[in-house]
Amino acid sequence: MTGLEVWYAMKDIAKKRTSAAPIYPWPTQELVRLNAPKVHNEWRQRLRAAKLEELKAEVKVMMDNHERAIDCRDALIQVTAQGCCSVT
Residue 34 has what pLDDT? Predict the structure, then answer.
């Protein structure tokens, strides 16, 4: 093939590619405008799920700390009560 034949072959391939591209009835900006709320809603749902997991873990830690503090206070009260009663 000569250089000119290669050029025409490449031109035909390029023409086929551009003619095979789908033609949308709406411009791209219109599609973006229509789909933006859907994407935004999906993003918010994913962020909410992630935040929920973080908050659950934080609440579990707080509950464990609270239980530990209650147990320490109960033990202190029992030791103090036994000390008061055994002295008399």
Answer: 85
